[in-house]
Write a structure and sequence with these properties.
The chain is built from 10 helices and 14 strands. By secondary structure, the chain is α+β, with helices and mostly antiparallel strands. It is elongated, with a radius of gyration of 22 Å.
Amino acid sequence: MKRFKIIPAMICISLLVSSCSVFLDPDPGSKPQNIFDSIWNDFNNTYALFGIKGIDWKAMHNTYVTRITPDMGDRELFTVCSNMLGELNDPHVQLMSPFACYNSGGRFDSVNMEPFSLDLVKSKYLDNAEMAGRGMFTYGTIKSKPSVGYIYISGFANGEVLTGSQDWVKDIDSIVMKLSGTDSLILDIRGNRGGLSSNVDFIAGRFSVKNRNYAQVRTKNGPAPNDFSSPVNQETGPAGTVYKKPIFLITNAQTISGGEWFTLALLSQDHVVHCGSTTCGAFSLSLQRYLVNGWTYTVSLQKVIDMQGICHEGIGISPQTDNYRENTAENLALGIDEQLEFAISINL
């Protein structure tokens, strides 16, 4: 029986596997064909997004099974399985071994990273930048417009996701209180790769004026293509110390998972304007699986839509055209954060 656990963010873990079969024949279950079949079958029964992504998974099997040979090495097998999972183009799908970690979305290597520098933000744009929440929050006021507040949220989990204390989130109340005298607020979640949904809801409540549903979730609960749970609405609403003045939310291509749930939550509020660039497009929680050869992989098991019925999986959430801005490496090298400067310029 396969063990599993739900993981809420992009966590790539290298596993050290010891061998107990130096003088024994390999476990039949670890033969290349069996490993390939185990991955394919589990995705066939569990993966929630074939329809959303327009993927014919049986056709993928027919394409890649021909590349499996009985005497192929682990690295060759890893490449074939990775290429098959790559067809999903899903950043929440990963394949991990002692020698490699593969992300199906392919959006997190240095080539694909959208330029951003928190150090530049602190040194050039913020007056008296401070940190809180064990470094998860950076905040202050804008030098050129002291009436504009700024908060950067680096993620929605700190330390061990399943067992570590998440008390750091409580610092958001004191931050909002300190910035309560500002006329507007820039909320920056560029590079935020998610975390715990409870932290997303906790922090979003400090920027929500009204109780609003912002997403609807159905979870895969059976092997048939249409085996899904009943829809469950996700809601945000005012909690704790609430910032009720205009908010300008900045995202980029590395705003992912919980960062995107947070984006949907805030966009349900009338006082929030979205700017920056399009988010990554990876919303589903992931199921982590273990193979007999020591590899692990993750499977997306949810369909998430906004309250207009739009699924942003694989697409991301994009600001309106007038508010869309991308940073470039050239400008960043010159000390220019175009996305932040635009957000500052549209503050009254």
